[in-house]
Design goal:
- By secondary structure, the chain is mostly helical.
- The chain folds into 2 domains: 47 residues; 110 residues, Arc Repressor Mutant, subunit A, CATH 1.10.10.10.
- It is 64% helix and 11% strand.
- It has 7 helices and 3 strands; from the N terminus they run αααβααββαα.
- A hairpin with a 2-residue loop joins strand 2 and strand 3.
- Helix 3 crosses helix 6.
- The chain is elongated and about 65 Å long.
Length: 168
């Protein structure tokens, strides 16, 4: 089997045989895979009238468990974006009737974001299709290869400093 990255690597070998361009093979394929995966996921979320970052918020609230609510601060930490970005995303989700925003009765300085019944139904439907799509996107890999790839990508991310601290 041959892919477009093979052509690039062959050109570098011909033009600069003194240069080990093999890292380009890994990074280039990661980038090409990322673009194809992002498009497939974007199209899937669009079928639910969602953007990826909106799905992330809904899914974060869903994973939290009943009563499916979190403080805005906890959402900021879990998504690693600014308060301003979270506010804009929550505004859009609230306008769609998928979340509510209320002052926390136990701490009036805190705002609770909660899934509505409509939001819960939508995220449950969307996550089922999302997982099925991801399985379909990875169907060219055997289960053992997927597990090995996941472990290698985890090792790469940790090496790039993408670890999670215990405080988070």
């Amino acid at each position: 089997m041959h892919d477009a990255v093979d052509d690039v690597l062959a050109q570098w070998r011909a033009e600069r045989p003194d240069l080990d361009a093999s890292p380009m093979g890994v990074i280039g394929r990661i980038f090409r895979a990322q673009r194809r995966l992002e498009k497939a996921l974007r199209d899937n979320f669009a079928a639910f009238d969602l953007q990826h970052h909106e799905f992330d918020i809904l899914a974060t609230l869903r994973r939290e468990g009943a009563p499916f609510r979190m403080t805005a601060g906890a959402l900021v930490k879990s998504s690693m974006v600014t308060y301003g970005a979270i506010t804009n995303r929550i505004d859009r989700l609230e306008a769609k009737g998928l979340v509510t925003r209320r002052t926390d009765a136990s701490n009036r300085r805190s705002v609770l974001i909660a899934l509505t019944d409509k939001g819960l139904r939508l995220v449950d439907e969307a996550v089922e299709r999302h997982v099925a799509l991801e399985a379909e996107l990875l169907s060219s890999l055997e289960v053992e290869d997927r597990e090995r790839l996941a472990a290698l990508l985890k090792q790469l991310l940790l090496g790039l400093g993408d670890g999670v601290t215990q405080e988070q």
